[in-house]
Amino acid sequence: MASAISSAVDSLHSAIQSNIIPNQEYLLQGSVLDTAVEVLLHRLRGFGPTDPPVSLRVRRAIDYPDMPFQLRYIGQPELGDKSRAAVVRSSIDVGTSNTVIEFLTEMGCRLDFEYIIRGYMFRKGRMKITVSKIFKMPQGKVMDSMEAISSSYLVELSVLAPRGQDAIAEDMRVFAEQLKPLVQLEKIDYNRLCKLIRPIF
């Protein structure tokens, strides 16, 4: 057990030194008397500092049931420079056991949607390109009765990299130009998309 912990710590230090883990926390701490906590809470509510909802995705390979499940955290898109060629957001992937759904449910998470995706994956250096068809989750989990959500394929071009490597977005733009006019790969404004979708429901 001790050697396993030591190995994990060494791996973490190596990841930090290699800038693989990009997130940093800036911290200030203090205390407030019990008699003043309601005043503090009232003031904080006035500022409106609420956390955005956390988005977690669980993936598994249906054709390979022995493979571990994958839990992915996706952060909010960075506002940054509007001229940037690609959406930039934090992303953390963790391999898990097949009980991850039950674990997240016990933690208070709720299932928003579930779907099946099938398609093709290509690599060009650090870039990953997926061409995939999205299917509704069949009733009773019978895979033979899958129904496609649309008559088109979703095409995604992505790169995982440490913070500060904005030149990657330009490389992605240049590569995307080579796929025109078959497909127009562009930066999606998620905030605008959510505003358009919300009134429908």
Strand content: 15-25%
Q: Can you give the mean pLDDT?
A: 79
Q: How does the overall form come out from the CA principal axes?
A: globular
How many strands appear in the DSSP assignment? 7
SS summary, helix count? 5
**How much helicity do the residues have?**
25-40%
Structural class: alpha+beta
Rg (C-alpha, Å): 21 Å
Characterize the main sheet. 4 strands, antiparallel
Order of helices and strands: HHEEEHEEEEHH
Distance between the termini: 51 Å
Question: How would you portray this structure in words?
Answer:
This protein is α+β, with helices and mostly antiparallel strands and 201 residues long. It is 26% helix and 22% strand. Strands 4, 5, 6 and 7 form a four-stranded antiparallel sheet that branches. It has a three-stranded antiparallel sheet with strand order 1-2-3, with no helix packed on it. The model is unreliable at 196-201 (pLDDT under 50). Keywords: Activator, Nucleus, Transcription, Transcription regulation. Component of the Mediator complex.
Blueprint of the fold:
Elements: H1 2-17, H2 37-47, E1 55-59, E2 69-74, E3 91-96, H3 100-106, E4 115-124, E5 127-136, E6 147-148, E7 154-158, H4 167-177, H5 190-197
Antiparallel strand pairs: 1-2, 2-3, 4-5, 5-6, 5-7
